[in-house]
Design a protein that fits this description.
Blueprint lengths: L8 H25 L5 H13 L3 H20 L1 H20 L11 H21 L7 H12 L3 H16 L5 H21 L9
Helix pairs in contact: 1-4, 1-5, 2-3, 2-7, 3-4, 3-6, 5-8, 6-7, 7-8
Keywords: Cell membrane, Membrane, Transmembrane, Transmembrane helix
Protein name: Putative 5xTM membrane YitT family protein
InterPro entries: UPF0750_membrane, YitT
Amino acid sequence: MAKPIEHSLLEDAQAFVLGTSMCALGVAMLTHLGLITGQTAGLAVLLSYVTGWSFGAVFFVVNLPFYVLAWLQLGPRFTIKSFIAVALLSAISEIMPDHLSFAHLSPWLGALLIGASIGLGLIVLFRHGASLGGIGVLALFLQERAGIQAGWVQLGFDVALFAAAFAVVAPDIVAYSLAGAVVVNLIVAVNHRKDRYIGR
């Protein structure tokens, strides 16, 4: 098998902008509907509800051990790319609400569109050697080392997270949010497979 051709710096740059923009679009819809999200961001949201601490502070602290794992097990290149992706997503998420609004978006359709947008954004980032940190790092590590598909790892975490969310937020919000998380993880599970797509 021929060695895969690495992405150029320009290709990585456009992918990072595209991937983080898709994720930011999902976040904009999620914020509009008042839903919660999965993965490490969702954990930080729940912890901020329970503790009263700011989301930003909790999200930073929760991510720290995952970046250590990324640096030690997946390498500096992956870790640095992930830091860049997280910074881009943060910046675009701050800017986007000034240029985008929704007159009407039903919770069920919104949840599915949120899942699709974030799922596609994650696939773009994964294909260019980056993630948005947190559980995504652990999922990629387990896929590379243990052969467990990244999407299923993330889905398992989200199932536990949303079960805990019932104690913090209204059941209908959890239901809508869980639907979006399922879409995200199904997209990742189907489209980010080492035996089918990765390395070709």
